[in-house]
Amino acid sequence: MTEIAKGLEGVLFTESKLTFINGSEGILTHLGIPIQEWAENSTFEELSLALLDAKLPSAAELAAFDAELKANRAVPDALLDVIRAMPRGVHPMQALRTAASYLGLLDPQSEDTSEAARRAISVRMIAQFATIIAAINRAQEGQDIVAPRMDLNHAGNFLYMLTGKEPTPEQSRLFDIALVLHADHGMNASTFTAIATASTLSDMYSCVTSAIGALKGPLHGGANEAVMDMLDEVGTPDKAEAYITDKLDHKVKIMGVGHRVYKYFDPRSRVLRDYAEHVANKEGKSNYYQILETIEKIVVDRMGAKGIYPNVDFYSGTVYSDLGIRKEYFTPIFALARISGWCASVIEYTRDNRLLRPDAVYTGAKDAHYVPMKDRQ
């Protein structure tokens, strides 16, 4: 009997220097450095450059990369016209998927699949995804699109373009940490999809558009939005225990809980939990946090022995919500961060490229023959 790895679980198809995950112990590292240290000491810009080059940058390298990102923040007017013309009410991930693809039509370098071109396109997309996502949000709300500023960091500039107001240093830093936590996560579904597309030697925009399509699904990028739906359904902290107990008793899947890889606490969720608590207490928005706290305790008590714990989506939505971001934009923000990991993984894989071509165990009929239409029952 041939053993099938459902969902490709446990299947090794390549090597990578970028990200290591030990799910049983709740460990996540980039370039061997724990994610907690990246979140505490680094920035999204530095981690993005480190992933692209697979090494810690020097101060001069980081300064040059930051300047390059800022120089590429603006997007073509033709793309902004497309964003303005999009139907009202479309899901932001549909809009982002279309915008990313259209961006490729406007890039004269888009068909160049050399490593140098892939890297140059990656830098532009990392910079421009922030502008595109903020523009989609503004256009969908009937507001004027806000042009990027060159004096703000990547996180602060996005929040400014989204709201039209300069964020506080604390808000900017909080969002920066959220981007760091989501920048890369090994061979997840969207990264694998980008690599699968890249393995055909397709262009960088096709790789990223493919990844966006994978991220859009509620079992991947859409989970944090679903967590907020759950919190709204619970309503108030005093109803949380009865709500989650009933769900667990009826074996209903709890969004933001459990992970294919982690059989212990997702280390990213521990970082976000602390910030969610801080923001909730400071802003007087403790309802969501108190509900999550109750749900986490009951889930861990009842499911922890089975390796089921809260993941990064469990607390990320409350952090975004406290920053004034609507839940429909949680998944595009995931893409805003993960664009770095997608691009870095594509560049790394295509250095020693091999076309991905898995197989399936055939379970259909054998020795069948064509039956003319008049003879079919």
Automatic annotation (TrEMBL):
A single Gene Ontology molecular function, please? citrate synthase activity
Any Pfam family the entry gives: Citrate_synt
For this protein, the record's PROSITE patterns field holds: CITRATE_SYNTHASE
Origin, by domain of life? Answer: Bacteria
Name of this chain's protein: Citrate synthase
Reactions it catalyzes: oxaloacetate + acetyl-CoA + H2O = citrate + CoA + H(+)
Which UniProt keywords are present, listed alphabetically?
A: Transferase, Tricarboxylic acid cycle
Where do the catalytic residues lie?
Answer: H259, D313
| GO cellular component term of the entry, any | cytosol
InterPro entries (UniProt xref): 2-MeCitrate/Citrate_synth_II (IPR011278), Citrate_synth-like_lrg_a-sub (IPR016142), Citrate_synth-like_sm_a-sub (IPR016143), Citrate_synthase (IPR002020), Citrate_synthase_AS (IPR019810), Citrate_synthase_bac-typ (IPR024176), Citrate_synthase_sf (IPR036969)
Q: In which pathway does it act?
A: Carbohydrate metabolism; tricarboxylic acid cycle
What the record says about family reads: Belongs to the citrate synthase family.
SUPFAM superfamilies hit by this protein = Citrate synthase
* One Gene Ontology term from the biological process aspect of the record: carbohydrate metabolic process
